[in-house]
Amino acid sequence: MSLVTTDSNGNTPLSPEEIQGLIPSLSTKQELNEWEWENILSAREWATATRMTIPELVSDSYVRKLHFRMFDQTWKWAGQYRKSEKNIGIPCQQIRESLAVLCGDVLFWIEKQIYPPDEIAVRFHYRLVAIHPFPNGNGRHARLMADLLLSNLGHTPLTWGAKDLIKRGEARTQYLDALREADAGKMQPLLEFARS
Ligand SMILES: Nc1ncnc2c1ncn2[C@@H]1O[C@H](COP(=O)(O)OP(=O)(O)O)[C@@H](O)[C@H]1O
Ligand SMILES: [Mg+2]
Mind listing the pLDDT tens digit for each residue in 86-99? Predict the structure, then answer.
């Protein structure tokens, strides 16, 4: 199937079972991107209109709920943790526990002001994509999570290079390079990219 391919562009390929979970009947990657974009747009509207406390937002149940809203018209497994291993991410058995640890860390950073707000959001984003909780949509979901956290803290959402990060291009390359630097423990490039 040409819809979801393995590539070197930081995308995670889907398993045959996951591909079976596609709800609409679409034939090209472009159609899928557009369909997902519409789905995500309505999720973004829902999420920005919903009032919630920071502990409600930074929770594994909200992480799942947001993914569900972003992909509920697209994938039957929207909002469900992945059950197959990917080239990015931790073993799937560890997802639930790692997310609980991450949420605890983020709430601690906020409460004790360990980092400035932007850095908390970017570190949250990075740890989310590194866990890679879902079969697909992890990048878009974790960017929206970071933006929602910042707005709920009373700050402006990030700009993420101000370009389409889904398509191949300079911004996507810069973003992936910055994530690899973060993999190596250097957070500064991702922090700068997120505000560029
Ligand atoms: N080396 C890496 N380290 C951490 N995260 C990465 C790395 N490479 C890619 N990613 C993240 O994984 C995402 C791709 O996963 P995927 O589930 O397909 O998300 P999406 O469908 O939203 O693009 C990228 O957008 C990026 O956020
Ligand atoms: Mg993808």
Answer: 999 999 999 999 99
Bridge partners (DSSP) listed for residue 75: 22
User: How far is ligand 1, taken at its centre, from the CA of residue 139, in Å?
Assistant: 5
Give residue 171 CA to ligand 1 midpoint distance, Å: 14
**Ligand 2 centroid from CA 11, angstroms:** 5
CB 88 within 8 A of CB 136: no
Ligand nearest to the CA of 40: 1
The domain made up of 26-158 has a fold known as Fic-like fold (1.10.3290)
Q: Which residue lies with its CA nearest to atom 1 of ligand 1?
A: 180
Give, as one character, the DSSP assignment of residue 195: T
Which of 76, 72, 81 minimizes the C-alpha distance to 22? 76
Confidence label for 108 from pLDDT (cuts 50, 70 and 90): very high
> In this predicted model, what pLDDT tens digit does every residue of 24-36 receive, in sequence order?
999 899 999 999 9
Ligand 1 contacts CB of residue 92 (under 6 A): no
